[in-house]
Design brief:
heterodimer, A: 110 residues, alpha/beta, Transcription Regulator spoIIAA, 5-stranded mixed β-sheet, 4 helices, 5 strands, B: 284 residues, Rossmann fold, 6-stranded mixed β-sheet, 4-stranded antiparallel β-sheet, 11 helices, 10 strands, 38% helix, globular
Chain lengths: 110, 284
């Protein structure tokens, strides 16, 4: 898995690429929580995620919880079909704010 | 559409990927040969049901498919790995991709439901505790036991224990899920809900599922293919429709719950009664 962090419109966009699984989710969690800790809106761009397992989704949940505690926002953008399936199974598609694209997310959330 | 420049070409679908390949598997317990040269494939994304009468070898075969037993001869490949060639670390990595829901649940009575579900994560990963707890709660949500993580197993009904066992089996998002008699001892409504859960694992989580059961209702509801074992041999492998239409009297007896002809080999029976088999196994 690779990640890329950019600052756009006052928000952090964290783009994840590749498989987010038991081996790679700890590094995804670390970077997401670091960005959330800076108390600015964070948008996780999942368009490049080829696979995400429960540990990856759990990292997204932790980031959302941390953002809410810090008074900031955390949202998802461009969620792939595979990732959406995992979110839906745990009924998390109702918990996260999910945008169709990063631009859409920045326009409304950034 | 076709024309002279672009003739129609039939494109064959790619063959289904084999996730478990068993060839000529022979296994013994002491001097007794339990499986007599089993060959079978389990295909990616299917629900393969293994059925057979008591003593047919189905539980032994399941333990081989889960890489918990070593065979006397023959080969076993799981997710492309020949298990005889694997180091201890490679075997541990392989086992992380396999989930097992044991008959009876096999939950640890001294631990909460949530701690039981986190066990495979604690055993196989270095994830943060908070991540593990969220994963366990997500799986409890999937099996409709949300909010039960702080209860002890003794506080759950039989059906709930099976569901908790299923949550533990899938907590690592395994590629292959094994279920040993998932609906045994449950009332029909609860048993049916367990079947629905197995279908969900295949359809929503894209898992390959191997189920051992003797519950015919379950077989007809969930199986993509069925393997029927009889006295350590494969009697049948095929779809449910092929199973129903099979002309073999033994298979029809199994499907209609008719008892088998109760003939015995008197010499073998005498050896079993007198313990001669086990004595032979301990002789130098």
């Amino acid at each position: 898995m690779q990640h890329e962090v950019t600052e756009r419109s006052g928000a952090f966009v964290v783009a994840l690429h590749g498989d987010v699984d038991l081996d790679t989710s700890p590094s995804a969690r670390k970077i997401l929580l670091e960005c959330v800790g800076k108390r600015r809106p964070v948008l996780a761009d999942l368009s490049g995620v080829t696979y995400i397992d429960s540990s990856g989704v759990a990292s997204l949940v932790e980031s959302l919880q941390s953002a809410r505690k810090g008074g900031s926002t955390f949202a998802l953008a461009a969620v792939s079909e595979a990732a959406m399936r995992v979110l839906q199974l745990a009924r998390l598609d109702k918990v996260f704010t999910i945008y169709g694209s990063v631009d859409d997310g920045l326009a409304r959330d950034g | 559409m076709s024309n002279a420049a672009f003739p129609a070409v039939a494109i064959a679908a790619p063959p289904p990927r084999v996730v478990i390949e068993v060839r000529d598997l022979v296994t013994h317990y002491g001097p007794r040969e339990i499986l007599h040269g089993i060959s079978m494939d389990v295909l990616q994304g299917e629900i393969m049901v293994i059925m057979g009468g008591s003593g047919s070898g189905k539980s032994t075969l399941l333990r081989h498919l889960m890489a918990l037993e070593r065979q006397t001869s023959g080969t076993m490949r799981i997710l492309g790995e020949d298990i005889d060639d694997l180091s201890l670390i490679e075997m541990t990595n392989l086992r992380r991709k396999l989930g097992v829901a044991f008959q009876g649940g096999a939950l640890f009575s001294s631990m909460t439901v949530g701690e039981n579900i986190m066990l495979p994560l604690m055993e196989h990963t270095d994830l943060d505790r908070q991540t593990m707890e969220i994963m366990a709660r997500m799986k409890l949500e999937v099996v409709n036991l949300s909010g039960f993580e702080n209860l002890m197993p003794s506080e759950l009904s039989g059906g709930m224990i099976k569901r908790a066992a299923m949550a533990r089996a899938i907590v690592t998002d395994p590629r292959i899920l094994f279920c040993d008699e998932p609906s045994a001892g449950l009332d029909p409504v609860v048993a049916s809900s367990l079947d629905d859960l197995i279908l969900l694992m295949r359809d929503a989580m894209r898992m390959t599922v191997v189920v051992v059961t003797h519950e015919l209702e379950s077989v007809f509801k969930i199986a993509d293919r069925v393997t029927v074992l009889d006295k350590g041999n494969i009697l049948f492998i095929g779809t449910v429709a092929e199973l129903r239409a099979h002309p073999s009297e033994r298979i029809q007896n199994l499907l209609h719950r008719r008892p088998e002809d109760d003939t015995i080999d008197p010499d073998e029976y005498l050896r079993r009664l007198t313990g001669e088999d086990s004595l032979e196994s301990t002789r130098p």
